[in-house]
Amino acid sequence: MNTTLTERILGGDVRSAGRLMRWVDDDLPEARHELAALYPHTGRAYLVGVTGNPGSGKSTLVNALVAHLRASGKTVGVVAVDPTSPFSGGAILGDRVRMQQHSLDRGVFIRSVATRGNLGGISRSTPAMVQVLDAMGFDVVIIETVGVGQDEVDIVRLADTNIVVTVPGLGDDVQAEKAGLMEIADIFVINKSDQTGADRLLRELRTMLHLRPRDAATEWTPPVLKTIAVRDEGIDTLLTNIEAHTSWLSAHGARHQRDRTRAQQFVRLIVTEALSHRLNHALASSDWQSTLDALLARTQNPHDAADALLNAILEPR
Amino acid sequence: MSQEPKPRTYRVLIGKPGLDGHDRGAKVIARALRDAGFEVIYSGLHQTPEMLVRIALQEDVDCIGLSILSGAHNTLMPEIVRLLEAEGAGDIFVFGGGIIPENDIGPLKEAGVRAIFTPGTPTTEVIEYLREACANRYQ
Ligand SMILES: Nc1nc2c(ncn2[C@@H]2O[C@H](COP(=O)(O)OP(=O)(O)OP(=O)(O)O)[C@@H](O)[C@H]2O)c(=O)[nH]1
Ligand SMILES: [Mg+2]
User: Fold this and answer.
1) Which CATH class is domain A35-252?
2) How close does chain A come to B59, measured CA to CA in Å?
3) With a cut of 0.90, is the ipTM above it?
4) B51-105 pLDDT per residue, tens
5) Which residues neighbour A59 within 8 Å (Cβ) at sequence distance 6 or greater?
6) Chain A residue with minimal CA distance to B46?
7) Residue range A153-172, pLDDT digits in tens
8) CB-CB contact of A147 with A56 (8 Å)
9) Which of A3, A5, A13, A15 to mutate to test the interface with B (most CBs of B within 10 A)?
10) Which CATH architecture has domain B11-137?
11) Residue ranges per domain, chain A?
């Protein structure tokens, strides 16, 4: 019975997978070895990102998508991200309240995650959590992000298909935001289209999309779809469009490109974190305090001080 | 659990098993725990013991807090403890709150429920207790 965590995860053990996800989330050194062992088993899952305004119905939509995917025989992993309270560091993770119907389905694994200060709409740990689900063999992994603006959307580099959810009646001040989200959407969903203004929003979004010059031969044109997630309406069409996007990516060699981007992004993240860790360490040293004194006395200049710091950080360990 | 590395944040599942539709108490404790730095997974209403145990495993929580107002605590709470043990997850401890008569507390604890907080218990006391009980899992 002395199996490793990795072996148990590959064998489908839910608790072991849950445990590794926690190690990843806590950035514990124990996670590294397990993730390395799982990596050769990743790369098969299809990743779908669901992002959009808070309260737009993302979780309800994910719930409906999972139901349809299950009906077609696919297994589904979900990583649902909710915000961490900046005041306490705690969080209430409530996305799965809308996904209750799948709790007992062995073909579904739902994990709630807190942002823990990360700004890109997902947690720092989300890509590795997705890898765990991927290695376990889930056919599709859906990532629900916290609603964010256009600036830092980490999900773009993680998912194969990005769904942006918006709703009618948000007012004109969100126009600019919509324009930003335009850049990341592979599929636009107008959810809550049982509410007034859905058709107007549909026309607006289609117009905005057409205003943007696009080379139809090399660029995917995002469809704009209406759904009523609470009533399970429009979900079939959404799935058809996800499949169409998948085929388009494959036909244009873009699926492979997304894989490359994802792998690079993953390594970039690790390096960025290691560097930032070392920088903080260097800034806590007494050497740096003397450099700081020299800077204040104007006997040292910022660029030379930065060079010295860089050398200290990049010293092999 | 002693060989397990210590986590950075404790994770608690707040569950509402059974038929009663009152989640005010559950939400109050969820918010208090969030404000004390816990990560709280909220299950929503009308969960079966099987569902809650499944969630606890997927979410790798330290404990499950149950809020029951329907009077069904004597069956639901021990059932969850039993299912956790059957899954080899008896180290995840169960605590409860709600309308629970004094006379039921002893038998519930004997059935493996770690703590019962009766109405009027200050949330600070609950938090204090959970901090210590969670920390003890990694001693
Ligand atoms: N009228 C209507 N309400 C909906 C629809 N879809 C979801 N809702 C409701 O909108 C509310 C928010 O739904 P969620 O699925 O939690 O939204 P979310 O985007 O995941 O919310 P956050 O994760 O908190 O940002 C709930 O009360 C849903 O029942 C819809 O199509 N029509
Ligand atoms: Mg949600």
Assistant:
1) alpha beta
2) 6
3) yes
4) 999 999 999 999 999 998 888 899 999 999 999 999 999 999 999 988 899 999 9
5) A80, A95, A96, A97, A98, A99, A144
6) A100
7) 677 788 999 999 999 987 66
8) yes
9) A15
10) 3-Layer(aba) Sandwich (3.40)
11) 35-252, 269-314
